[in-house]
Each structure stands twice: as C-alpha cells, then as structure tokens.
Amino acid sequence: MESVFGLVGKDFAIVVADSSAVHSILVHKTNEDKIMLLDSHKLMGASGETGDRAQFTEYIQKNVALYQFRNGIPLTTAAAANFTRGELATALRKNPYMVNIILAGYDKDIGPSVYFIDYIASLHKVDKAAFGYGSYFALSMMDRHYRKDMTVEEAVDLVDKIIMEIRSRLVVAPPNFVIKIVDKDGAREYGLA
Amino acid sequence: MSIFEYNGSALVAMVGKNCFAIASDRRLGVQLQTIATDFQKIYKIHHKLFIGLSGLATDAQTLYQRLVFRHKLYELREERDMKPETFASLVSALLYEKRFGPYFCQPVIAGLGDEDKPFICTMDSIGAKELAKDFVVAGTASESLYGACEAMFKPDMESEELFETISQALLSSVDRDCLSGWGGHVYVVTPTEVTERILKGRMD
Question: Transmembrane region positions (chain A) (predicted)?
Fold first, then answer.
C-alpha cells in the first residue's frame, strides 16, 4: 500500500511519497512520481487507485492552470484545497475517486500550509499528515519529533527517520521515496539543484 | 463499523436562562487512527444561531456549505437573519431531500429566537426533528451524553453555571468513547455576547 506524508516547516512545506507502482504481487516500476506540481507554488501528493490517482491529479492541475489563465492570478492553497474537496465530494455518490491527497502550498502573505483530503472528501488544514500503511509509522514519528518552525535540515532529518522506520518495519516496504519541497521560491524536488 | 462512526464525534446543546450553550469534541479520526485534534464541528450561521454537525465529516462539510449558501440567499431576500425554528425546518428539508441516499450526519441546532428565547433541537440523518426544552445530544458518544446531561442538568442556569455543566457533561461522556474527545469546544450564547472556549480534557 502506498505511503504519502507531509509536514509544515518554518517557511516551507514538504511532501514525501513512495515511488513504487504495484499491481497485486508485481512491482511495475520503482520510480513513479506521485507528487504532482499543481502550479509554481503547490504540491499535490496522492495515494490510492493508480488510474484514479493519475487522472484526478492531472484534472486538478489543469483546472488550477485554467483558473490562472482566466483570472490572471493564481489560486491560493486554501482555494485549491477546497476546489479539490468539491470535486471529490461531487463524484462521491456517483463515481468516487479512490484517491487520498496531501496538498501543500506556499502563499505570499500566509506562508506554508498543508491540507489533508481523504478519498471521501474530508478536508482539514493540518501541520502534519500521512496516508497508507506507512502512516502508522509516519504519524507516530512526527508526533514524537515534529516541532513548529523546523528548518529545512531538521525537517529532512525527520523525513529520513520516517523513511528508515517505514523501510525497516513495514513488511512490503517500498524501496524508494520522492521528496518535494515548496517555499517562497516555488515547488521543486528536494535534492535537485 | 457503521458509517456514522467512521470519523467520531460528540455534540451537546443545553438551554439556560435566556442563553444557550453548544459544545463538541475536537477529534477528527479515520476509524481507529486520529488525524487531527482541532477539527471544528460547530458552525456559526449568524450571531444567534449555531449548528453542530456530527457523523461523517465529509457530509458535515458538504451540508454546512449548502446551509450557509441557503442562509445567505435568505438574508439577501428577507433582509434579516433566519429564526432558529425556520432554520431547523430548512435543515430537515435538505436532509429529507436525500431520503434514499442520505447525508450521514446528525445535526444539533441551537439559537435564540423571538425575544431571545433559547431554542434547541436535533434530528436524525433523514430530518426527523426532535425538539427539547432542556438538552439535545448527538454523535458516537450520545448514549453517555444522555446520561451525563440528565444527571447534571437543571433548568434556568445562568451562562457561567451552564458553561460548567455542559463542559463537565461533555468531558465525562467523551472519556467513555474512544472515537471522540481530544478536548472540547464550547460556545455560550447570550443575547448580548458569544463566548467561545476550548476545554482541555484527557488527550486520548
């Protein structure tokens, strides 16, 4: 089962997802990117049904871009989160998307924020969030080590600890993870220059 | 596990002397896992009308958005706030509209009506109203809440005493329910002011 988790730091937010694409007992690929860049300052990490995940996150990404084209200004993170929740809620009683989402963003006057969006469209703004079997380890590690206003180094250190815990304690532990960070300079993969 | 017990909640409203109090727990869970301990379940419709929504969080959020929409339209047309009795009928109608595919929510409505007379009511997920003169409860901890409120309630309490009573009833009830708790959120509303307080209880 896929692990996604995220947390808010001093003036940045981090989203981490495993990068394995699995079908029953077969591992299709180990470098799948499950964290989509919605726009320059937003990240959407998603876990769940593979087709729904890819289609739904792309749908949200294109609608976020459309808003910017039409209105000339980008959506705030809160607005993007509420739009995503609305789409999930509308589809819920017709043709539900089985996708759990962690949406992270940076807004100029608000700072970093992370939103937890369940597959049944429960929305909540949080400091730390996690989905999947990895969440049992991620949430506990974050409850123990997370503080408000962590620096990037401290946050990445915590992320490393969480990944090590998932790797050592989860029976079908994913081998690789992708870390993406968003701050005032934009959203990007961590570790890439 | 029932769909009503997926997220976990505890809600209670009590009538006092020319005032009312409405209180909720603060837990947002996904079955056995706790996601957040600052989740809001009581929403303000206007300064003399509050609604608490227990049950499935996604439906509570959807229902709240629909209710705010309807109330804002009402305000624009009628140029006044909705009375609590009218609002309760609106909620009941919205819920019964989805009779064969319902919202999995149990609302608790509390407000000050004409001449600031306190009004409370609850309803089931398909809109069957239950008016009460003393207290109403909802959520996964409702059975404990019934007992605690019945024991602690007195008629015509002033706002300070009402706050103490509703807080004690809420905290003692959620301590017996694993799906609700992690603190409390209490609103005490009199004709002149609204007091919002956060309770610290057993954080488990």
Answer: none
Say if the Cβ atoms of B58 and A93 lie within 8 Å.
no
Q: Residue A8 to residues A13, A82, A107, B30, B124: CA-CA distances in angstroms?
A: 4, 19, 13, 21, 38
d(CA B159, CA B189): 8
- Pick the closest to residue A158 from A169, A143, A173 (CA basis): A143
Tokens of A146: 């997370």
Q: Choose among A122, A126, A129: nearest Cβ to B58.
A: A122
Rounded distance, CA A15 to CA A13, Å? 7
Chain A partners within 8 Å of B62 (Cβ): 89, 121
Sort out which chain B residues have CB atoms less than 8 A from A129's CB and list them: 35
Q: Where are the alpha helices (DSSP H) in B36-185?
A: 57-78, 84-97, 142-152, 159-174
Query: What 3-state class would DSSP assign to B86?
Result: helix
B120-162 pLDDT tens trace: 999 999 999 999 999 999 999 999 999 999 999 999 999 999 9
- Closest Cβ opposite residue A126 in set B30, B36, B62: B36
The pLDDT score that the predictor gives to residue A191 is 76
CA distance A185 to A6: 18
| Low-confidence residues in chain A, pLDDT < 50 | none
Residue A86 near residue B58, CB atoms below 8 Å: no
CA distance B183 to B170: 9
Judged by CB atoms closer than 8 Å, whether chains meet at A129 and B28 is answered as no
DSSP letter at B81 equals: P
